[in-house]
């Protein structure tokens, strides 16, 4: 996830959280007859709130607020669900004579196929995404429960060395996720 989106999410959660805390503190204050909470409650003009729906401005304002809320909510959802996929990255070996680009998705697929040849590995899913403003190659392995994990770990270490040899100088993070199937009886 992008750092700016995370910051935006945290600011929104902070504001909503502070609002909920303030509302809760006010409700507790009213219950305990705290003068500050009672003073805030006394400032609310109840007749104005009760007659607002019958005024001419209430419905248009309600429609505008509803539409803006829907657009903002949809935008926030789309922003958080967006996949940050990476296609090609430029090699540091590029110079004025030409550019060398490597398709990390193709490399990830090849690495996944190689790992699928390991005994007891059922499948490997490869993705290349931008995670925290860094290109990240993620390999998710699904293996049987009786897999020799130390041997698989040795294979993953060799795979990591192979990836580094294939993309020298390219700064890419690699993440290996191992999911073991349940034990069958």
From TrEMBL:
Superkingdom as given in the UniProt entry: Bacteria
Entry keywords, A to Z: Membrane, Transmembrane, Transmembrane helix
Transmembrane segments: 12-37, 57-78
The protein's name in its UniProt record: Alkaline shock response membrane anchor protein AmaP
Species of provenance: Corynebacterium hylobatis
């Amino acid at each position: 996830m992008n750092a700016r989106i995370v910051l935006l999410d945290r600011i929104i959660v902070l504001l909503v959280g502070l609002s909920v805390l303030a509302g809760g503190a006010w409700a507790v204050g009213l219950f305990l007859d705290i003068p500050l909470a009672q003073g805030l409650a006394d400032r609310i003009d109840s007749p104005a709130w009760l007659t607002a729906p019958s005024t001419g401005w209430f419905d248009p304002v309600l429609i505008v607020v509803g539409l803006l809320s829907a657009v903002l909510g949809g935008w926030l959802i789309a922003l958080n669900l967006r996949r940050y996929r990476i296609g090609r990255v430029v090699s540091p070996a590029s110079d004025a004579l030409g550019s060398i680009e490597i398709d990390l998705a193709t490399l990830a697929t090849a690495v996944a196929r190689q790992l699928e040849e390991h005994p007891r590995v059922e499948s490997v899913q490869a993705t290349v995404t931008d995670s925290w403003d860094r290109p990240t190659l993620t390999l998710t392995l699904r293996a049987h429960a009786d897999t020799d994990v130390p041997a698989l770990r040795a294979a993953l270490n060799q795979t990591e060395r192979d990836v580094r040899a294939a993309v020298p100088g390219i700064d890419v993070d690699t993440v290996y996720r191992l999911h073991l199937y349940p034990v069958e009886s």
